[in-house]
Specification:
The protein is elongated, with a radius of gyration of 25 Å. The protein is an alpha+beta fold.
Length: 89
């Protein structure tokens, strides 16, 4: 299973310059906002998009966590077995 986050990134830039009685001044600013919109879940030949901003979608994602942890543990076990075989050779 693969989880791919879908995000929105917004950037802003502002600046200004001013003069008052021969005194100069200037300023500027930069901002960035990144917010999650959805998560794309790919499992076998199925693709499902789950929006993050609704409560039910978060519940669905939490339901998939045990399955994801099981897959991670299986991969770790395979790597351990492969390393044992390499050491024996």
């Amino acid at each position: 299973m693969k989880l791919i986050p879908i995000i929105t990134a917004s950037f802003g830039l502002g600046g200004g310059i001013g003069e008052e009685k021969n005194d100069s001044g200037g300023g500027g600013g930069l901002g960035c906002k990144i917010s999650p919109d959805a998560i794309l879940v790919i499992k076998d030949n199925q693709v499902e998009m789950m929006p993050v901003n609704t409560r039910g979608s978060l519940d669905k994602l939490i339901e998939k966590v045990p399955e994801l942890l099981e897959k991670i543990n299986t991969c770790k076990q395979k790597k351990k077995e492969e390393s044992k075989l390499e050491k024996e050779e």
